[in-house]
Design brief:
Number of strands: 0
CATH class: Mainly Alpha
Distance between the termini: 35 Å
CATH architecture: Up-down Bundle
Strand content: under 5%
Radius of gyration: 19 Å
Number of helices: 9
Shape: globular
Largest sheet: none
Helix content: over 70%
CATH topology: Four Helix Bundle (Hemerythrin (Met), subunit A)
Order of helices and strands: HHHHHHHHH
């Protein structure tokens, strides 16, 4: 965690450079899709942002387990920071998916199994953040949030399995798309570069949020100590 906070400038510069390269590759260099034409270029945003959301909740899952094991509030701080980013990226995923769906499927939203599971994931972690706002005791808040963070993550594998378990409109897993031999090599390169770019961007945002979270944690501890004296 400390490394991510200390390397904020490096990560920010790297993310900016990679995003510029990824934007050029996705918008200019990669060819249009045979069926969806230029509409499919939104994939170079939608897929990496969806990946960032699930990566964030994966961090929440691991950090929550570590907190329950170590009882160290630094893990709770990491979980909280990642959860906020996860909610943000998941909201962007749904929004971009709706923009993509309108010209392709003819609707902004449909209760496709994968879309529904993603919406449920978003609601779970919005609830997670609300729980953190309600609980005043830092220790109790961390313990309760850790349980929700662990249980909520179970929806992530369900999202990936939903396209296999139930019939829906949404495509399969991203990594299967990357292995599709019919996908143009330039499309694969553009998608991979954007996945790397948004992963670095996530690391940068996480480091910045952790730095702010350190100050917030100290503030909450002081307020809780003062409330106990009254």
């Amino acid at each position: 965690m400390e490394w991510i906070e200390r390397r904020g400038q490096v990560l920010g510069t790297a993310a900016l450079g990679l995003l510029m390269v990824g934007g050029y590759l996705g918008l200019v260099w990669a060819p249009p899709d045979v069926n969806q034409h230029d509409v499919m270029r939104i994939m170079y945003l939608h897929v990496p942002i969806a990946w960032d959301g699930e990566l964030a909740f994966g961090v929440v899952f691991v950090a929550s387990i570590m907190y329950l094991w170590k009882r160290d509030l630094k893990w709770d701080r990491l979980a909280a920071a990642a959860a906020e980013l996860g909610v943000l990226f998941t909201a962007l995923t749904v929004a971009l998916g709706s923009i993509w769906a309108r010209p392709v499927w003819g609707v902004w939203w449909t209760w496709d199994p994968k879309l529904t599971a993603t919406a449920v994931l978003f609601i779970i972690y919005v609830g997670y953040l609300m729980l953190r706002l309600v609980a005043e005791d830092p220790v109790r808040r961390a313990r309760q949030a850790a349980v929700v963070g662990i249980v909520g993550f179970l929806d992530v594998p369900l999202i990936h399995l939903s396209s296999q378990l139930w019939r829906g409109l949404h495509q399969g897993a991203t990594f299967r798309v990357l292995q599709d031999p019919t996908l143009d090599d330039r499309m694969q390169v553009a998608l991979i570069v954007n996945l790397v770019a948004f992963t670095v961007l996530f690391a940068f945002f996480l480091g910045q949020r952790l730095s702010l979270g350190r100050l917030e944690q100290r503030r909450d501890e002081i307020l809780w100590e003062e409330a106990q004296r009254v």
